[in-house]
Exonuclease
Amino acid sequence: MQIKKPIVFFDLETTGTDTLNDRIVQIAIIKLAADGTKVEKERLINPTIPIPPEVTKVHGVSDEMVKDAPTFHQVAKSLFEFIRGCDLAGYNHLNFDMPLLIEEFARAGVVFPEPDVQYIDVMKVYYHFHPRTLSAAYQLYCHKELENAHNAMADTQATLEIFESQLATHFDEEPSINEIHNLCFSSRHVDFSRRLARDKEGEIIFAFGKHKGERVRDNRGYAEWMLKGGFPADTKRILQELLQS
């Protein structure tokens, strides 16, 4: 591949998945120069907010590990200088890492990214060449071409065959329906459109908008506004049940 300017591959570990309010705890960068040379940098960051224990279990970074690390504000300018003039690459970074990094730079008073940056999302390249379609899954798991695709019965039969192959391929012991359900449907979300979620105490909260994170029981006005708006039926049903309980 011919490149005219360096490409920075990067990944973030954070305090959570909220790109607006969560913070970086670790950043790793590999700068790939036009001549093929690579420069690697890695740093722990003090997020200035607690790292939830369940998040530490995922990436291994604890409050103790970052207590003496610099804050993002302290490293923002040097970090920006290192990646200035580079294109930016990552895995799913357009959906998560980039939005969160933009917020961190903004809080530090640094305008990021530069207007002429080009992006490489390795996940999107992967999905482009390995489509996440029923036909692709059928070929992968059943080693057959799906005939009459988009016919409802043909698609349903293929779905059942794929599931049977998945059970044989990925599970040493026969799983329960509950195990499969938990794999497919996050216990945190309570409606299919993901407008509602559960907090750590199991209380239903708003998962979007200006009241994101607030408990539905504590903001009946917003819930009533949603009931009058163009929200999905299952979301409204759950809200109605909460307001009546």
